[in-house]
């Protein structure tokens, strides 16, 4: 490894000083976001597409094809689906903004080509909010499938492997997955409420709050823009802003940041992170599901962490596990502190914008959605 990257200590961090001035929530949360595994005794959290929704979807896909649209040319103005759009806004307001996750079921994935599904999923995202870039190449959709890469290697992202992915959140307001194929074995999807984790934390380890509100450095995995450093400033794991408690936690990115800095975690930091890891895996907190072809799972990245078990693929390429991933910025989803979303004052960029394409114009604005 080359020379270490220089970075200021917590005492010299503007983000740490800013976070230290904010209040902390010191009481447990009792709203819909604080669910446990026992909360879901049936599938009431699944919303099913109606015949009206499916007619609108089919009509819009046909219209996109007839107009010669492709994934990179579909815009909000191409989509005319009033009933489906209203359904999605209800889903956001009643499911994602409150509970933090949900599933949409009933999309006939086997009816359409891969290109048609990609256009539909992106167009659907424009009905929810502003779709954002997922990597330095500016990809609109992520393809979550095994690319034969090593998850333990630097600058490799988990969606490119078939490895077990520990609980984490993505750098956007909402992440959506549309299942094209599931694995031959494994690949179970799980979610855990970061708010329920906080409730347990208050009871068991309140002394860990100092480090969690201070936060950790994050590795940008080689996808930083020209105005960013390879390592972020300190990002709070928990942040409390105007009554909204939010979580941001990706241990893998914290670990590789320390590797690049050639600076190990302190004993105290390791103790806190190990506790959070164990807490995120507690059976009484975790809820798991298997995505079937056509299922669409969405998560609010400030309320829940998500995970995936290791999987084994089918030998036939056409049957290998494959998910389409969508990142969406949703206006007014949650009140968020600037240091929590890494707001860059000069450009207006924040982590809510996903991972901007290299040389992207700043600030990133699209179709009037702030």
Question: Can you tell me about this structure?
Answer:
- The protein is α+β, with helices and mostly antiparallel strands.
- The protein has one domain (10-353): Clavaminate synthase-like (Double-stranded beta-helix).
- Helices cover 26% and strands 17% of the residues.
- The chain is built from eight helices and 15 strands.
- It has helices at 14-20, 51-66, 82-96, 114-128, 194-204, 209-214, 251-261, 267-280; strands at 46-48, 101-105, 130-131, 142-144, 165-168, 174-181, 185-186, 189-193, 238-241, 244-247, 286-289, 296-300, 304-308, 311-312, 322-329.
- The strands form four sheets. Strands 1, 2, 3, 4, 6, 12 and 15 form a seven-stranded mixed β-sheet that branches. Strands 5-13-8-11 form a four-stranded antiparallel β-sheet.
- A hairpin with a 2-residue loop joins β9 and β10 (244-247).
- The longest helix is centred in the N-terminal third of the chain and has 16 residues, at 51-66.
- 39% of the residues are buried.
- Mean pLDDT is 89; it is low at 365-370.
Features:
370 residues, alpha+beta, Double-stranded beta-helix, seven-stranded mixed beta sheet, four-stranded antiparallel beta sheet, 8 helices, 15 strands, 17% strand, globular
Low-confidence stretches: 365-370
What's the gyration radius in Å? 20 Å
State the CATH topology.
Double-stranded beta-helix
Any idea what the CATH architecture is?
4-Layer Sandwich
> What is the number of strand segments?
15
Shape: globular
> Which structural class fits the helix and strand makeup?
alpha+beta
Helix content: 25-40%
Helix-strand string = HEHHEHEEEEEEHHEEHHEEEEE
The named CATH superfamily: Clavaminate synthase-like
Largest sheet: 7 strands, mixed
Distance N terminus to C terminus? Answer: 40 Å
The count of helical stretches stands at 8
What fraction strand?
15-25%
> How many domain units?
1
Mean pLDDT: 89
CATH secondary-structure class? Alpha Beta
